Amino acid sequence: MQPVTPRPPAERDARRDIVEVCRRIYARGWLAATDGNVSVRLGDDRVLTTPTGVHKGYLREDDLLVVDRRGRRVSGTRGPSSEIAMHLAAYDVRPDVGAVVHAHPTNCIAFSLAGVSLAQCLLPEVVFTFGSIPTTAYTTPTTEEVPNEVRRWLVGFDAMILDRHGSLTVGADVYAAYDKLERMEHVAEITLRARMLGPIRPLEPAQVERLREVGRGLGLPDRTILPSPCDHCNACPSGKAAAAPPLPPPGHAPLPLAADREDLVRRVTESLSATLARPRGR
């Protein structure tokens, strides 16, 4: 099936929607100050985008500007973001994309710093909605390395983590792109908490294939799944990153959770301080 090019919104509506989405992202803590950028395709030759150097939590509709497909300003008083090339690359590669969101979601970035990517083998929702969530190779922000790298992944994926840089999500409209950001960061948070509790059990290949069959029956798009064994997470024994802590041997107490370890350290410290404070006998 050929991708359907979404009908571009009226510029007035697109301005309102971009401001709303930026405020939502900032309220979630996935942008700080002037970080991140959001854009909406207005037509074949125009893109409405956030400007450089403006706090996204306080963005106004008249702060936005329109650029052409080469990133040159068409209207507006401010300059475009230095990352506009990444947005234009998405529109070039994917005619079905009507909006692009680049943010800095905390857990997603933390996973990339730790060398652990979000793989398709953990949650059914990921198989249905994303297929896989890849992590791109590291690229120097604001350079042509970024759009060149994301082009490789946009062919098959709507959401990705940019190594040490943030996230990129695309959609038919700006709310669809935002929803994918929200869902991806939620998956990252669940995965992080699960890893704190112990080793992660990935879905079996047969379970993944069954989920894909169910998705096709529901009329969902057939998402791209990275090959297995993959190198995009450390849940599987073949993962490249360091494995999660092993289960304790039989007969031993389970490894304490982070909160329990903090309480244990506090009690040991208090006991030691009390012992040292006692007067010593001659």
Give a verbal description of the structure:
It is a single chain. With 282 residues, the protein is an alpha+beta fold. The chain has one domain (11-217): L-fuculose-1-phosphate Aldolase (3-Layer(aba) Sandwich). It has 8 helices and 7 strands, in the order αββββαβαααββααα. Strands 4-3-2-1-5-7-6 form a 7-stranded antiparallel beta sheet, sandwiched between helices. Strand 6 and strand 7 (166-171) form a beta hairpin. Helix 3 crosses helix 6 (174-197). The longest helix has 24 residues, at 174-197. The chain is globular and about 75 Å long. Residues 237-258 have low confidence and may be disordered.
How big a fraction of the residues is strand?
5-15%
What is the overall shape? globular
CATH architectural label: 3-Layer(aba) Sandwich
Q: How many separate domains make up the residues?
A: 1
Strand order of the largest sheet: 4-3-2-1-5-7-6
List low-pLDDT spans: 237-258
List keywords for this structure.
seven-stranded antiparallel β-sheet; 8 helices; globular; about 280 residues; L-fuculose-1-phosphate Aldolase; alpha+beta
Quick recap:
The chain is an alpha+beta fold and 282 residues long.
Secondary-structure blueprint of this entry?
Blueprint (H helix, E strand, L loop, with lengths): L10 H18 L8 E5 L5 E3 L15 E3 L5 E3 L8 H10 L5 E5 L2 H8 L10 H6 L15 H10 L4 E4 L3 E6 L2 H24 L7 H13 L40 H20 L5
